[in-house]
Amino acid sequence: MYHPLSLFVGLRYTRSRRRNHFISFISLISTVGIALGVVVLITVLSVMNGFHKEVRERILGMASHGDIQALNGRMTDWREAMDQARQHPEVLGAAPYIEGQAMMSHRREVTGALIRGVDPQRETEVVDVASHMVAGTLDDLEAGAYRVILGRELAQVLGVGVGDKVTVIVPQITVTVVGSVPRLKRFTVSGLFEVGMGEYDRGVAIMHIDDAATLQKLEDAVTGVRLRITDVWQARRVAVELAEKLQGRYRVLNWTDYHRNFFAALKMEKRMMGLLLFFIVVIAAFNIVSTLVMMVVDKQSDIAILKTFGASPGQVMRIFIVQGATLGAIGTLIGVAGGLALALNIEAAVAAVESGFGIQFIDPSIYYIAKLPSDVQTADVAMIGVGSFLLSLLMTLPPAWRAYRTQPAEALRYE
Fold first, then answer.
1. Beta strands of 38-137 (E only): which ranges?
2. Among 290, 287, 285, 319, CA closest to 302
3. Tens digit of each residue's pLDDT (9 = 90 or more) over 148-186
4. What contacts 219, CB < 8 A, 6 or more positions away?
5. Backbone phi and psi for residue 175, each to the nearest 5 degrees, phi listed first
């Protein structure tokens, strides 16, 4: 392919002015088509990566990277487990927690919720709740004060605000002289948080770990220990190492275990979207076949003369491979440059379109975000660029093979 004759003639055919302007037009269309396909692929996958990153960060705003739990749901030696977890070089922080189901009521409104007891001083080591607080702070939770922080949607369902009282009812029975009654306690709403995901905003209530232990009669036991890890993508490996270190006494989970199906669906969605959009490049690459076939027909006499002067069939074949590869490379390079420029400035581009046409692509009240996120990943860009070029190169083979089989006597018969 890089023989001087093949390279020289192939590049000359690419940049020469042709008698047949239709071939030049098809060549331009094929190059532009590949470029547009690459631009669309890079932009769409970058936006999808941005959405996935946004969702992941919101989940990790409330969910820890790792979680050590007792096999029976009641961890009494949690301090020992927490100390052993802290000794791992990739564990940045650890904090105990208590979790359980409860009913919450205010006047006539009743709804279910997940109550989470936390240590306000240690909780910031594992999750960044403070950045999601819209009223109050985590430090407002004090042992024995019976205060609670609600998700914003949960507070709206109950019709409460900061300072109001809510009744928390746990599914446990207290035996009294008048019979068995459910265990309940009145809490004061001291704050509200908003993550942007209904799973948390609608269904989680945070209280002090001592109050949660008193409510569920756990005494000094906890549900588990939550962990923050240096690299969230290494959470699974670290969880396995901690499980081995703890000698199987506890169940060690990571953040992907809680949302396995959700993240698997996102991954599958990205793959299918990328595959479908890649067909844009495939369709554009087929134009290279049309261009080269017409070029081979148009250059029959030139091919015959080259073979008559001693050019081998392989050299002739490589001439058209060089020409098609050049068109594919130009389209791919333009597409990668345009895709990166658009993906990195997608917010400004969307704002300009919204302003120009008076429309709104993203409603913050529905999607909880006010801008179109974009996360350009080098691996995606490299895969798209290499895939586009290799596809273009593959499309050059049928017409190049036709040039390979051209017989000089047949080509020059009517010249």
1. 66-70, 91-106, 109-118, 133-135
2. 319
3. 999 989 999 999 999 999 999 888 766 555 556 668 889
4. 213
5. -90, 125
Alpha carbon distance 59, 57 (integer Å): 5
Question: How are the residues of the chain apportioned to helix, strand and coil, as percentages rounded to the nearest 5?
Answer: 55, 20, 25
Residue with tokens 């350009």: 376
Block residue for tokens 């049928």? 398
Q: Which of 286, 377, 337, 375 is nearest to 38 (CA)?
A: 337
Confidence of residue 1 (pLDDT cuts 50, 70, 90): very low
Q: What are phi and psi of 255, to 5 degrees?
A: -65, -25
- Exposure class string for 207-245: b at 16+ Cβ within 10 A, else e: bbbbbbbbbbebeebbbbbbbbbeebeebbebbeebbee
- Reading the block at residue 192, the tokens are 């509200």
Helix (H, G, I), strand (E, B) or coil at 20: coil
> What is the CB neighbour count within 10 angstroms for residue 167?
16
More confident residue, 296 or 34: 34
- 6 confidence band (pLDDT: 50, 70, 90): low
Question: Is 102 strand, coil or helix?
Answer: strand
Quote the CA–CA distance of 214 and 216 in Å, as a whole number.
Answer: 6
Show the tokens assigned to 198: 């209904």
Query: Which tens digits make up the pLDDT trace of 229-277?
Result: 888 888 888 888 888 887 767 888 888 777 777 778 888 888 888 888 8
CA atoms of 198 and 336, how far apart (whole Å): 37
Pair 47, 369: CB distance under 8 Å: no
Q: Give dist(CA 115, CA 102) in Å, integer.
A: 7
132: three-class secondary structure by DSSP: helix
The values of phi and psi at residue 363, to 5°, are -90, 115
pLDDT over threshold 70, residue 216: yes
Per-residue pLDDT at 309 exceeds 70 = no
Instruction: Indicate the pTM of the whole model.
Output: 0.72
Asked if 100 contacts 115 with a C-beta cutoff of 8 angstroms, the reply is: yes
- Asked if residues 122 and 96 have their Cβ atoms less than 8 Å apart, the reply is yes
DSSP assignments along 140-179, one per residue: G--TTT-EEEEEHHHHHHHT--TT-EEEEEEEEEEEETTE
Using CB atoms within 10 A of its CB, is residue 22 exposed (0-12), middle (13-18) or buried (19+)?
Answer: exposed
